[in-house]
Amino acid sequence: MQNRSTLRLSILALAIVPVVLEIILLVALSNLHSQADMELERSVRAQKITEGINSISKQMYDAFFMFSAEKNDELLTKEAMEPIIIKFRQTYDELEKLTAGDEHSHSMIASSSKAANRSVELMEILRGSLDRDGKTTAARAFRKPYWYELRKQTKAILTPEFLNLRREEAQVAEAAPLIQKDIREKIQFSIWTISILLAAFVSLVALYLTRTIADKIARLSDNTLRLASNVPLHPVLKGNDDLSQLDQVFHRMAQELQAAARKERALLDNARDFICSIDSAGKFVEVNPASELLLGYKPDELLGSHLIDFLAGKDVSDVLACFDKIQQSEETATTFDTQLARKNGTVIDVTCSAQFAKEEKLTFCVFHDTTERRAAERLRQEVVAMVTHDLRTPLGTVNNVFDFLHRGQLGELNDKGQRFVESGLRNTSRMMSLINDLLDIEKIKSGNFEIDCAEVEVRNLFKGCTDLYATTAAAQKIDLIVNDTEATVWGDQDKLLRLLSNLVGNAFKFTPEGGQISLSAEQNNGSVKLSVKDTGPGIPKDKLVNVFERYLQVDGAHKSSGSGLGLAICKMFAEAHGGRIWVESEEGKGAEFLVSLPAGDGSKPV
User: Does the model's pTM come out above 0.85?
Assistant: First the structure.
């Protein structure tokens, strides 16, 4: 696999190579400085050795001329000899230290030192004889061999090798300045060489970066401008280096962005909703083709025109205020309903979802045609109104007639007639209940549902349920058990009684003969939980989530023929009171409906 030059390696080389060269320079300079120090130390050492040998030579010559003949016996005094002996020993000690690392030189110094020590011993013998025997002829004869040996020791001290060592060390001391000059030249050469190499390397790297990296970066920068301006990009850079790969990735990204833009444009062009952008002056800046389908205007006809020219209805000022509020806030999309005027003069209902983009200073809008839905809602409202007003009154009259007949106020009926009357009374009551349910649902959906909240004793709600279903419980042989409680809730007593009655009535529909229904309450942390529990067949697990939906009835052995609105109304009533309702059940083991409501201020713990 071929090696490839990458931006990372180039930058790494630019950082490492100068450091390596500097390290080499520092090592070379350190070595040269070490050599210079060594040469200086050697020069000083050689100079001291030379001076020491010269000192010994001078002292020996002086001593030789002073003590070389018997006529000079009177000079062999302690006062004359002691300084010479001390000087000898100090000089030899220093020379031995200086030549400690040179075995050859050290041996010559040691040999000369030994001869010097013997000379000192001979002078001590001569001085002792002079002090003891005086200058008699016999004493002089005694000292004569010692004088002769003393002259021989002088030659042993200043041997040719010893004197040659002095010349060698003198030459070393004389050559030291030349060597140090050579070292200084080497230091200067090393500094200049490394500096030239660094300059050449930096120049080459700069040339490389200019011709490769800088040019490629400039090309990448130009490509970004071309992409922003929707202008074709430069051809893709070839190569395996990092910048070439970055350019290749950039081209792929540009292709993906262009593909995404085409898809977005396709979505906008084929969307059935009217999508547009509006500037701060309220003018259309961009419009999709759905404008012709919704308003009858082509996009070119709308561009530059004002939104206010197409608003219809009585809420024009509210819509404009809404747009002003959207442009002043950075909230998420705002949705509102309004009306627009079509080209043919008709008015359509729309739902507008708008959001302001601060950077573009544009409001993006999506208008969805809701004309058919609004017509359906109006039709439903008309049907509900008809059921409420046109059917409820005559149905109430029919119910009263059946009630009169049932109580015998219009005369006694035979058994068959009584059964017909009871059947009619049940069905009219069921119809009235259905109408009331539909009316309550419509009120809740339209926001016209009102509740008159007060503190309500739960025991009164339970009593109302038992009074209502006492006959039913006896007829179906079902035990209706009420657990006494002192809890109170905050709510509308009539609405809450109806909520509980619906739950109890639902329990009677599914509880078999001989079963049991229990009512209980539990207070906890500012809320009261009401429970209606039965021993019916229970609710399948997959139906628990949807049990409160309208018109949904759970299949079972005791399937009811109810309207399917009772539990939905219970859920709406509970939520209208700021509470919630849920069910817990296991198939085959009954069901328990639970309602959580705000506790009354004066409620006591259960």
Answer: no
d(CA 595, CA 597): 6
CA pair distance 315, 74, nearest whole angstrom: 147
pLDDT of residue 30: 78
Compute the average pLDDT of residues 516-544.
89
- pLDDT at 331 (0 to 100): 64
> Residue 517: its pLDDT value, please?
92
For 16, the token pair is 């490492």
pLDDT band at 594 (very low <50, low <70, confident <90, very high): very high
Domain ranges of the chain: 7-183, 271-369, 375-445, 451-598
Give the pLDDT of residue 2.
41
Closest CA to 307 of 348, 276, 349, 335: 276
Rg of the chain in Å (alpha carbons): 61
Beta-carbon contacts of 289 under 8 Å, excluding residues fewer than 6 positions away, are 269, 298, 299
Fold of domain 7-183? Four Helix Bundle (Hemerythrin (Met), subunit A) (1.20.120)
Query: In the numeric block, which tokens belong to residue 214?
Result: 């800088």
Distance CA 312, CA 517 (A): 58
Find, among 573, 601, 581, 597, the residue nearest to 521 by Cα. 597
What is the 3-class SS of 137-175, one letter each residue? HHHHHHHHHHHHHHHHHHHHHCCHHHHHHHHHHHHHHHH
Please name the helix (run of DSSP H) or strand (run of DSSP E) that holds residue 455, with its range, or none: strand 454-457
283 burial class (0-12, 13-18, 19+ CB within 10 angstroms)? middle
Q: What's the pLDDT band for 1 if we cut at 50, 70, 90?
A: very low
Contacts of 576 (CB under 8 A, 6+ apart): 444, 449, 451, 495
Between 248-257, 400-409, 438-447, 465-474, the lowest mean confidence (pLDDT) is in: 438-447
And the tokens for 354?
């708008």
- Are 120 and 92 spatial neighbours (Cβ–Cβ below 8 Å)? no
Q: What's the CATH architecture for 271-369? A: 2-Layer Sandwich (3.30)
Helix (H, G, I), strand (E, B) or coil at 483: coil
> Which one-letter amino acid corresponds to residue 370?
T
Question: Each residue of 368-420: pLDDT tens digit?
Answer: 988 888 887 777 777 766 666 666 677 777 777 777 777 777 677 777 777 77
Alpha helices in 209-241 (DSSP H): 215-228
Query: In whole angstroms, what is the distance from residue 309 CA to residue 383 CA?
Result: 35
CATH of domain 451-598: 3.30.565.10
